[in-house]
Amino acid sequence: MNLFGAIEAGGTKFVCGVGTGPEDLETVQFPTTSPQATIQAAIDFFRARAGVSLRAVGIASFGPIDLHPESPTFGYITSTPKEGWRNFDIAGAVRKALEVPVGFDTDVNGAALGEARWGAAQSLSDFLYLTVGTGIGGGAMVHGRILHGLTHPEMGHIRVPHDLSRDPYPGGCPYHVDCLEGLASGPAMEARWGVPGRDLPMSHRAWTLEACYLALGLANWVCTLSPQRILLGGGVMQQTQLFPMIREDLARILNGYIQAPEITEQGESFVAPPQLGSRAGVLGALALARTAAGVTS
Ligand code: ADP
Ligand code: ZN
């Protein structure tokens, strides 16, 4: 009983892993089809690779999901538009089939836990993990625990100032139009400029605007959560020129009010890339499995 199972449940693909940590993690990946077929493929993988040695499984899932332990639909994927997955009891299906404890959380909360355990946030008690990709999502570690609160944070949907004379793009969030995600996600960039972000030259003013929106978001979280570090991942952050621009804008927006050398000196470690790269999701799920089994070290 010494192996852990990990499921990175994404809207287009599932990545499953078995192991104890980054050194011995064995992974497999398959497309997300129907819930029944996809979960069965995951269960078959765990049975074949771990068998009776499986101690717990962690699921880091696309959402929205129900994380309220008292709720009758705890462990479900809830209102997703994804065909067949709405109101699906993903955590329950895995628990019933494998009869082991199941840790369940959002994909970003999982990634934050993975970075805390093995990546760029080791030994920190308070930090944020943000992904800037198809959407903008964030996980917060507060006092050494992932912040859940009422449900789970939806950091991408905060409001930031939108100057229509500088940026006439109205915003693309179906719920709030010009929230941060509506203005600064990968699809928002593509809708504003007519080409995907990766096709825009590094000198394009799109990046100045993008850095400014992200820094406005970061300023809000710095003021509300006082993180020791903010990790920025996701497809859009592959544009590494954004990092120094965001650090500079953040220091300008905060205007010396928060007196911490990490911010005022614009050091590279305060706003930093994650370290687990493409394995962040599945390692985050593995960290959830370890927590579900009560393993703390
Ligand atoms: P997801 O959010 O679906 O998990 P990603 O984090 O890869 O996946 O985000 C996909 C979004 O990021 C797309 O909108 C895409 O245009 C954008 N993106 C991916 N790679 C890059 C890149 N190198 N530069 C700029 N934008 C990118
Ligand atoms: Zn929104």
Tell me what the structure shows.
The chain has 297 residues and is an alpha/beta fold. It has 2 domains: 3-107 and 278-292, Nucleotidyltransferase, domain 5 (2-Layer Sandwich), CATH 3.30.420; 120-274, Nucleotidyltransferase, domain 5 (2-Layer Sandwich), CATH 3.30.420. Helix content is 34%, strand content 19%. It has 9 helices and 10 strands. The strands form 2 sheets. A 5-stranded mixed sheet has the order 3-2-1-4-5. It has a 5-stranded mixed sheet with strand order 8-7-6-9-10, sandwiched between helices. A hairpin with a 3-residue loop joins strand 6 and strand 7. It is globular. Bound molecules: adenosine-5'-diphosphate (ADP) and zinc ion (ZN). Residues 157, 173, 175-176, 179, 181-182 line the site of zinc ion (ZN).
Radius of gyration (CA) equals 19 Å
CATH superfamily of the largest domain: ATPase, nucleotide binding domain
Looking at how many chains there are and whether they match, the oligomeric state comes to single chain
Shape: globular
Order of helices and strands: EEEHEHEHEEEHHHEHHEH
Relevant terms:
19% strand; binds zinc ion; Nucleotidyltransferase, domain 5; alpha/beta; single chain; 2 domains; binds adenosine-5'-diphosphate; five-stranded mixed β-sheet
